[in-house]
Q: What sequence folds into this?
């Protein structure tokens, strides 16, 4: 199993923390975000890792990691970054991680062993984390609904109320070559307008089964400086879960 970390963006909402480095190299609890991701993926048995780079990508390449440069990272969404790693996605099963999240190895293992061609990790207890991050969790929450058998039914819309939110997508997913080919058919030149949740929603509407795998352990996402404080507290309170 291979793993790809999408780390092309600057992370402008972090202000001067990313003036001289990409977002994935911002430290959290004594380690960069990239180091947290590498450790979790490796501990879960992901054997080869690559990073999709963009903003100040040379700083990542200097760490000896294999990289896929996203040439148009500033003009496209996360999906554009994902396309840069297409050679690996076409070749075999691959875990894909956003470059601004911290999660446990147990969550990766659950994702890797999930059935089906396409699977995503999600947090069914999302509200607790969102209350720590936002004054009103509804400001950032997206719709997330499941089918009776636990597959993705809806994702990415602005929810009318929280009854439409059965969890939150984490930015961690797993493709097989077959599901990646389905994704390429959906994209077909639309990488500038479709974001990742938009791609997943379109795949669902086209009949692609998307397994939804609950996270195993704590996690956090870093969008702004306040998220760093939240993430550091999560890591501090859950040292055993993050001890690899």
A:
């Amino acid at each position: 199993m291979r793993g790809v970390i999408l780390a092309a963006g600057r992370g402008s909402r972090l202000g001067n923390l990313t003036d001289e480095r990409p977002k994935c190299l911002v430290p959290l609890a004594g380690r960069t975000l990239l180091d947290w991701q590498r450790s979790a993926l490796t501990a879960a048995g992901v054997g080869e890792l690559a990073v999709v780079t963009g903003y100040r990508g040379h700083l990542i390449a200097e760490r000896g990691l294999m990289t896929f440069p996203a040439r148009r990272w500033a003009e496209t969404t996360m999906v554009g970054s994902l396309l840069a790693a297409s050679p690996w996605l076409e070749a075999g099963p691959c875990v894909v991680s956003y470059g601004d999240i911290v999660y446990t190895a147990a969550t990766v293992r659950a994702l890797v062993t999930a059935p089906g061609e396409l699977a995503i990790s999600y947090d069914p207890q999302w509200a607790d984390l969102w209350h720590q991050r936002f004054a009103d969790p509804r400001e950032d929450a997206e719709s997330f609904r499941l089918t009776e058998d636990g597959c993705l039914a809806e994702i990415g819309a602005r929810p009318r109320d929280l009854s439409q939110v059965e969890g939150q997508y984490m930015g961690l997913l797993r493709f097989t070559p077959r599901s990646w080919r389905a994704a390429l058919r959906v994209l077909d030149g639309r990488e500038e307008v479709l974001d990742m949740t938009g791609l997943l929603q379109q795949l669902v509407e086209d009949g692609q089964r998307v397994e939804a795998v609950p996270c195993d352990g704590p996690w956090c996402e870093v969008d702004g400086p306040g998220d760093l404080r939240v993430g550091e507290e999560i890591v501090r309170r859950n040292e055993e879960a993050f001890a690899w």
Observations:
- The chain has a mean pLDDT of 95.
- The chain has nine helices and 13 strands.
- The radius of gyration is 17 Å.
- Residues 225-237 form the longest helix (13 residues).
